[in-house]
Write a structure and sequence with these properties.
The chain is of the alpha/beta class. The chain has ten helices and 14 strands. It folds into two domains: about 55 residues, no CATH class; about 250 residues, TIM Barrel (Alpha-Beta Barrel). It binds phosphoenolpyruvate and manganese (II) ion. The site of phosphoenolpyruvate (PEP) has 9 residues, from loops. GO terms for molecular function: 3-deoxy-7-phosphoheptulonate synthase activity.
């Protein structure tokens, strides 16, 4: 149940009273108070009725990330980026951090093409345990140095709650990958710290499962969440790795106030189809794109088949900006 109060101070008062009455899972946003476990205004007799404007009971289960709880777009500020609302955010970088020189060179190209966030994995979720697993802390150090040298934000994947402090020492934005979208202890752990989290949609996750995963992060206190569609599993994987669910972008934007970005690299899985798929996502309203890039895709340590060259990225970002403007 979401109770709309007359103003923010009435909402704060109701929140304090709910806590004093030992009500669990209660949160405030501006002039609204959300009671995630209650459905009836009679359950909260301590609320000053004269200050109640309206009561919403038919909101989605993922309450805090819903527009019923926070009607306006969430805009997330990082040291070098403003994500969400009317802003259009560009993220690029190699799949995996390979060396100090390589991540710096890829960062230079990304920045020149308009990206403000430098991505790169140092903890890699690989299908096979025998594949390259990432450089660990050494990768984080090189990645941080490149981002600092270029005045960009660093974003990197985290796979275990045990790594939050270590990864958080370096990164500006935590990335949670498709395979960990429902790793609830990881979601709670990043929810307990205050850096933004980019949450990728599970490859087979429904919209409600995706929003509930985001709610796990919010339930621990962190509402700086960026959603990313990265392609879902479908019945034909012969020509494309996944299927970019373009249609989910406006659906999510109706349901949630969080920024919705798209990753055409993992959706396509092959570089020649990344551009049209990425542009389609922007046309559908994506508030940003993430691309994997490599100067020598055939030699990339991970995901080379889908990596764009710096020139291809520059071309795609220019077209994406034009479509976003439109
Ligand atoms: C990645 O961004 O490199 C990655 C592993 O993505 P996903 O979780 O979407 O597969
Ligand atoms: Mn990848």
């Amino acid at each position: 149940m979401i109770v709309i109060m007359a103003d923010e101070s009435a909402a704060q008062k109701a929140l304090a009273e709910a806590k004093a009455n030992h009500i669990e899972h209660v949160y405030a946003s501006e002039n609204r108070v959300g009671f995630a476990g209650l459905k009836d205004i009679d359950d909260v007799p301590f609320i000053n009725e004269q200050q109640v404007v309206d009561v919403i009971t038919d909101h989605p289960g993922a309450m805090q990330v819903s527009r019923a709880f926070h009607p306006t777009d969430t805009v997330i500020q990082t040291p070098h980026s403003t994500i969400g609302g009317q802003n259009f955010s560009l993220i690029a970088g190699p799949d995996a951090i390979e060396s100090a020189e390589h991540v710096l060179a890829m960062g230079q190209a990304a920045k020149a093409a308009g990206a403000t966030i430098l991505r790169g994995g140092s903890y890699k979720p690989r299908t096979s345990p025998y594949s390259f697993q990432g450089l660990g802390e050494q990768g984080l150090i090189w990645h941080r140095a490149a981002a600092d040298a270029l005045g960009m934000d660093m974003m990197t994947e985290i796979m275990s709650p045990a790594d939050v402090d270590l990864v958080g020492k370096y990164t500006d934005i935590f990335q949670i990958g498709t395979r960990n979208m429902q790793n609830f202890s990881l979601l709670k752990a990043v929810g307990r710290q205050n850096k933004p989290v980019l949450l990728k949609r599970g490859m087979s996750a429904t919209v409600d499962e995706f929003l509930s995963a985001a709610e796990y992060i919010a339930s621990e206190g962190n509402r700086q969440i960026i959603l990313m569609e990265r392609g879902i599993r479908s019945f034909d994987q012969k020509y494309l790795r996944n299927t970019m669910d373009v249609s989910v972008i406006p659906v999510l934007q109706k349901l949630t106030h969080l920024p919705v970005l798209a990753d055409p690299s993992h959706a396509a899985g092959v570089s020649e189809h990344v551009t049209p798929i990425g542009l389609a996502a922007v046309a559908a309203g994506a508030q940003g794109l993430m691309l994997e890039i490599h100067d020598q895709p055939a030699k990339a340590w991970v995901d080379g088949k889908q990596a764009l060259t710096p020139d291809q990225m520059t071309n795609l970002f220019a077209k994406a900006n034009a479509i976003h403007e439109l």
